[in-house]
Amino acid sequence: MGIPVSHSEHRRTTKPSLTSAQAKNMPEGWTNDPSELEEFFSPGSGEADLAQCHGLRDIKLLVMGTRDSGDMQHIIKSGRRYYWGYLMIDYIFEITNPKTFPAILRALATKGDSGLKYRKLKQVETVEMEPREQRVVEEEGPRLFVPYNPNAPSVSDK
After folding, report:
1. Is residue 35 part of a domain?
2. Which site among 23, 27, 99, 146 is 20 to 30 Å from 67 CA-CA?
3. The sheet that has 117-120: what strands, in order across it?
């Protein structure tokens, strides 16, 4: 029946962590897999800047829509409050009910988004971003010029 372990080691290895317990109770279409979350809400990212514009600090990304679902929604925590957002909109909503993360997960699992009550946050500051031209790195070497003629026949016209 497997490799015997000491009683204390058995207790330590079988006690579920908060993350594994949450993973078991994750609503369909949502994930808290660190490999899925790691590219979002890093300092200086657009998502982190947007949260900062709404007055949120010390942001922690808790869950996101899965890649398979194609859903770009997310739930973040700042302080003792939870917030819902969608990566394609420039708004963040405070989740006013339910108030705890396990209750939020239960509501999502049983009722979907309609199980949550929201309050739209107002932007409290703006983040200055560099103009697009300044963010593009200039490369040395020959430049390619592609002429454009709006009256040129298209391939689909033939």
Report:
1. yes
2. 99
3. 30-31, 60-65, 73-78, 81-86, 92-97, 117-120
Which has the closest alpha carbon to 88: 65, 121, 118?
65
Number of structural domains found in the chain: 1
Other Cβ atoms within 10 Å of 56 Cβ, number: 20
Q: For residue 33, is pLDDT > 60?
A: yes
The larger pLDDT score, comparing residue 59 to residue 6, is at 59
The span from the first CA to the last CA of the chain, in angstroms, equals 72
Residue numbers of the domain that contains 92: 21-123
Helix (H) or strand (E) holding 82: strand 81-86
Amino acid at 151: N
